[in-house]
Fold this protein.
Amino acid sequence: MVVKVHGSAMAACPQRVMVCLIELGVDFELIHVDLDSLEQKKPDFLLLQPFGHVPVIEEGDFRLFESRAIIRYYAAKYVDKGTKLTGTTLEEKALVDQWLEVESNNFNDLVYNMVLQLLVFPKMGHKSDMTLVQKCADELEKVFDIYEQRLSKSKYLAGDFFSLADLSHLPSLRFVMNEGGFAHLVTKRKCLQDWYLDISSRPSWNKVLDLMIMKKSEMSPGPAKEEA
């Protein structure tokens, strides 16, 4: 059964779900939700996700929202299919969960605030708070110092195997390395940079990036037609 993923190819949380599904070899259909027009806040969508956020997945009669809950669900459901993303021992699984919590609470919140200030608010006509952006960058330095220490001891965050903990970082890291303009926070830390280059080169992530580029192209207005 094809999984329906309601969201936008350009949004971080749907990207997290899509890269997980690709790693597991699970077929999915992306149902585009126009975030710019606030489609996610309209009554029809609120029937799917009462908080008005993306993504939401549908698989038959089953529905689930919150991207990290979704990737945990599919990694457990298809534990014997595709990449084993949760580890094998109880201890490995605990470490995956630990670093997923770190990603959510210590890393992603900082990047999310940066995205709001640098991308979302300007698009809405609001001024960016660059003091807050710099404060988040300073805090991110501290987080990345801890990552550097961890990655000096293991190839990936939860151990020597690629897991949900690494995968979950990809969307926000893409922003840090590109639009955010803070690539130096990663590149000046050798172990962190090696890890980023490793996980961002995975075929699953490149497929998500290709989908993002394709959707952007479809949404961009074409050249104006000349009058006959």
About this structure: Strands lie at 3-7, 28-32, 56-59, 62-65. Residues 223-228 have pLDDT under 50 and may be disordered. The chain has ten helices and four strands. The CA atoms of residues 91 and 158 lie 10 Å apart.
